[in-house]
Structure to design on (306 residues):
């Protein structure tokens, strides 16, 4: 069976200011929960697919965010763990704090939604053997952090360097280049984590077959519907195609993101065009025989196959 999932990291807008070393614009601070979440649900309804929503625990302190997420869970969307505070330097915090960030993030989500998350994605896709050890200790069913994409790794490294040259400091950090050695299809991690083993199930962030181009919300929305279809076709053949989005992928400058216009080309694209590109991917994968499921259900199926 060919499976596909659409996952969304619900990073609120201040995280993007942190990436670019900018002072956050408080007027845009809650756009992901106040605007993007409903657009994502509308997109899900239009494309007839469930969402897996990777959630930052601290954002649920705001009642509106907690209520929106709870409603999404009741409508059948999976709620997964994206840590408590979305510390980009999670891997550098020491084992006790790493455990607290993961364990407390899951606890807050369960308190808000009544459902214990079974999946985890690390902030910035950056992960280590130590983080995997914590995930295994906590009984997490699957991780979805490894991103074995040379183009993304090089672009991220260059972007952080360019920000530093301009006199600012990005909160984002660069993963070890050894991540590029990891399998591109789901696998059980070994030690080091970029080798196959018998540990936790890893569902890597999607790359295309062959060239290993990034197949994520940024690349899909920048590509537009026609090229997004091409990217989707380049993924056909994988046992699971996981399109990873962010809440910002359904927002644009007209929503109040003018301050990010010089720094993020994707926010310059009108959100209806972004939605069209995402739906083009869904249609292409469905035409290729893929069935859309949550990542929790995909992990269950993959665990039976492993």
């Amino acid at each position: 069976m060919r499976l596909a999932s659409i996952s969304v990291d619900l990073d609120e807008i201040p995280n993007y200011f942190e990436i670019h070393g900018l002072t956050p614009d408080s007027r845009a601070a809650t756009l992901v929960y106040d605007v993007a979440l409903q657009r994502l649900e509308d997109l899900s309804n239009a494309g007839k697919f469930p969402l897996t929503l990777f959630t930052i625990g601290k954002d649920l302190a705001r009642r509106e965010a907690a209520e929106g997420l709870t409603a999404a869970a009741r409508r059948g969307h999976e709620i997964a763990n994206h840590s408590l505070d979305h510390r980009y330097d999670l891997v550098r915090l020491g084992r006790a704090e790493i455990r607290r960030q993961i364990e407390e993030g899951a606890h807050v989500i369960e308190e808000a939604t009544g459902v214990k998350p079974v999946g985890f994605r690390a902030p910035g896709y950056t992960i280590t053997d130590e983080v995997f050890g914590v995930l295994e200790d906590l009984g997490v069913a699957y991780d979805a952090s490894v991103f074995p994409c040379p183009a993304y790794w090089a672009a991220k490294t260059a972007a952080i360097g360019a920000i530093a040259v301009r006199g600012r400091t990005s909160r984002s950090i660069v993963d070890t280049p050894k991540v590029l050695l990891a399998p591109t299809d789901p696998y059980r991690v070994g030690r080091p984590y970029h080798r196959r083993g018998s540990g936790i199930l890893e569902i890597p962030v999607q790359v295309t077959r062959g060239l290993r181009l990034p197949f994520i919300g940024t690349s899909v929305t920048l590509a537009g519907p026609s090229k997004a279809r091409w990217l989707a076709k380049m993924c056909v053949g994988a046992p699971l195609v996981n399109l990873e989005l962010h809440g910002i992928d359904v927002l644009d400058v007209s929503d109040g993101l003018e301050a990010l216009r010089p720094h993020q080309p994707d926010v310059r694209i009108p959100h209806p065009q972004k939605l069209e590109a995402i739906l083009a991917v869904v249609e292409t994968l469905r035409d290729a025989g893929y069935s859309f499921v949550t990542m929790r259900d995909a992990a269950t199926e993959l665990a039976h196959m492993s």
Remarks:
- The chain has one domain: 2-305.
- The domain at 2-305 is CATH 3.20.20.370 (TIM Barrel).
- The radius of gyration is 18 Å.
